[in-house]
Design goal:
By secondary structure, this protein is of the alpha/beta class. Helix content is about 25%, strand content about 25%. It contains six helices and nine strands, in the order ααββαβαβαββαβββ. Strands 5-4-3-6-7-8-9 form a seven-stranded mixed beta sheet. A two-stranded antiparallel sheet has the order 1-2. The protein is globular and about 50 Å long. The N and C termini lie far apart (about 40 Å). The chain binds S-adenosylmethionine. S-adenosylmethionine binds next to strand 2, helix 4 and strand 4.
């Protein structure tokens, strides 16, 4: 209850997003060392030197995507799998990619255990997107790039939305929303954020 109250008070107001975040328990996605902090509104360390994002930021990014039930969504940066699990409650199909196979294996196990059958988790370099499943109605990047990666922009459907942090990894970055219209791309700055870097062009770990 306190968890939802915190989300609402920090700007997560979309009912469908709140319902999804109420349904998907964050605790299984958090490592045992930090289990007592699973419902704190803070990012936490996970394996491979990565992080599970702050719940408010997960909520705000999900809300900014304006997902509809018929949508096919691509997430770059599976991490713990928590964000993908939330997306799976809102969209028809979710593809999520991480460059750490160990994280992907752990996330797959959690998805199976929770019967989240509309998520496909893939190991690889997400900066190239997933051309074989493109175009996507929505794309979410949960690691910061200096600029929106070209292949991801190219895989965004007309009418599609991509949300991603942009900026250098050691500074405060901007969360931006990109909409593809018939005429091109519209960019909108949403809020300051801090994410681990999107490692581009190095392939998977
Ligand atoms: N969405 C995650 C969650 O719900 O736990 C948090 C993601 S964490 C902040 C960022 C993730 O991006 C890390 O797991 C990292 O391995 C991944 N990453 C960084 N560069 C990547 C790339 N080029 N392709 C795929 N994943 C990448």
């Amino acid at each position: 209850m306190q968890f939802l109250y915190t989300l609402r008070s920090r700007g997560v107001t979309d009912k469908r997003v709140l319902t999804a975040m109420e349904k998907i328990d964050r605790a299984p996605f958090v490592t045992d060392t930090f289990s007592d902090r699973a419902y704190d509104d803070t990012p936490l360390p996970i394996a491979c030197g990565q992080t599970i994002s702050q719940p408010t930021i997960v909520g705000l990014m999900t809300q900014a995507l304006e997902i509809e039930p018929r949508h096919k969504v691509l997430e770059i940066g599976t991490g713990s799998g928590y964000q993908a699990a939330i997306l799976s409650q809102l969209a028809r199909r979710v593809y999520t990619i991480d460059r750490h196979p160990r994280l992907v294996r752990a996330a797959r196990k959690l998805f199976e255990g929770m019967d989240l059958t509309n998520i496909t988790a893939i190991s690889g370099d997400g900066s190239f997107g997933l051309p074989e499943q493109a175009p996507f109605d929505r794309i979410l990047v949960t690691a910061a790039a200096e600029d929106p990666p070209g292949p991801l922009l190219a895989q965004l459907a007309v009418g599609g939305i991509m949300v991603l942090p942009v900026g250098q990894s050691d500074t405060v970055q901007s969360l931006i929303r990109v909409r593809r219209t018939e005429d091109g791309l519209d960019y909108e700055e949403l809020l300051p954020v801090r994410f681990v870097p999107l490692i581009e062009g190095l392939g998977q770990e």
